[in-house]
Amino acid sequence: MLEPSTNTFTEPLLENLRKHPKRLVFTGGEDARIIRVASWLVQEMAAAPILLGRRDIIRRIAEQNDIPLNFVRIIEPAKSPDVPVFCERLTRIQKIIGNDEIDVCSLVVQHIHFAAMMTLYGQADSVIAGNSLGTAAIVRAAMRYRQDFQHPQLFGINILHIPEFAERYGQSTYFTADSILTPVPTIEQLAHSAVETSKFARHLLGHTIQTSMLSASTLGSKPDLPANRVQAAVALAQAQIRQEGLNSEIAIEGEIQIDAAISHEAYSMRVKPSSIRRPSNVLIFPTLDAADITTRLLNLMGTVHSYGHILSGILFPLAMVTRLATEEQIYGTALIVGNEAIKYHHLYPEGTAPVY
Questions:
Q1: Residue 68 near residue 1 (C-beta atoms within 8 A)
Q2: What is the pLDDT of residues 301-342, one digit of tens each?
Q3: Closest residue by Cα to residue 36 from 8, 15, 5, 14
Q4: Are residues 220 and 187 in the same domain?
Q5: What is the reported pLDDT for 226?
Q6: 356 pLDDT band (50/70/90 cuts)?
Q7: How far apart are CA 331 and CA 2, in angstroms?
């Protein structure tokens, strides 16, 4: 069987999970890629994978591809004895939020909802979906498990690992948002994405974070552009970071062009010379178009590793891989949401990652 591969970003995530293994639910278990990733996670002693799907189909695919299923749990939601309990619990949730007009039991047997109920009630820690279900369907399901029903906002985070950038720019891993949901975010949505993505990056990387809110303008360099929205979002995000007491851990700047955010030379030319500023870890795009085009273009580079999407704003860690995702992408994404389920003080008992 093929061996799993890691890089300078995912290797520490794997080590974290070896110390703190998590239960990861894969909603599309009838897929050779998913079965192989589950087997890798067991092989690396990083997680207890749970595959949702028909047991006979999953076993047949595993046998055809010579994939061991040792310690891989398989659940058929429609036949699970937990369905009545999940029905009762989801009914209660829907009544609380004022949405009791649906057939809850028909939802529970759907894999994405079954996985959600498993995480909400302590049977699993994180969910990986998307390989067999479209993004729109996953987002619709996730909306039922929002953290805040009064001010709901979901957004997607992508992680790009670009090895050749490490030597040239001093940074190789970038967290980008919003990569999937909101075409033109409001000022409040941009600020929220910046704050939450920065906190997510800090959780995974274990060190201080530099966040750039991107535009085609740097600090008003192109006055004919409608950059006021980004400028206002920067001020709001900075205020939120101060309010949460994270201003020593997270620095948010903007509006700024992407080359100045990444390159020390471009920053010195466009903003000001600085010997202490670190290249940005987090890139917040002004529109979904900008984020999507940039991500897809970079993905055409053979050396770029792309992980996600990670859906932010719901009650449990949820990743949405694409239907075209490679095994390496699914594996890396699983490591990410597994780490998301680990408490920060367990990951970094000394306060920061060991390499910093």
A1: yes
A2: 889 999 999 999 999 999 999 999 999 999 999 999 999 999
A3: 5
A4: yes
A5: 63
A6: very low
A7: 13
Distances (CA, A) of 31 to 1, 9, 38, 117, 259: 16, 26, 11, 22, 39
Q: For residue 326, how many other CB atoms are within 10 A of its CB? A: 13
Could you tell me whether strands 305-312 and 318-320 are parallel, antiparallel, or unpaired per DSSP bridges?
Answer: antiparallel
Q: What is the pTM of this model?
A: 0.93
In sequence order, the 6+-apart residues with CB closer than 8 A to the CB of 302 are: none
On whether both 75 and 139 belong to a single domain, the answer is yes
Please, which residues bridge with residue 209 across strands? 250
Cβ atoms within 10 Å of 176's Cβ, excluding its own: 26
Contact 90, 283 (CB under 8 A): no
215: phi > 0 → left, psi -120 to 50 → alpha, else beta; which?
beta
CATH at 282:
3.40.50.10750
> Which residue, chain included where needed, has tokens 């890139």?
283
Judging by beta carbons within 10 Å of its beta carbon (0-12, 13-18, 19+), is residue 232 exposed, middle or buried? middle
Residue listed under structure tokens 């049977």: 123
Which tokens belong to 347? 């990951």
3-class state of residue 5 by DSSP: coil
Which residues 6+ apart lie within 8 Å of 126 measured at CB?
22, 23, 24, 25, 119, 316, 317, 318, 319, 334, 337, 338, 340, 341
Cα separation of 204 and 340, whole Å? 7
For residue 16, which phi and psi values (nearest 5 degrees)? -60, -45
Q: Based on the structure, what is the number of domains in the chain?
A: 2
Q: Domain range for residue 119? A: 1-154+314-356
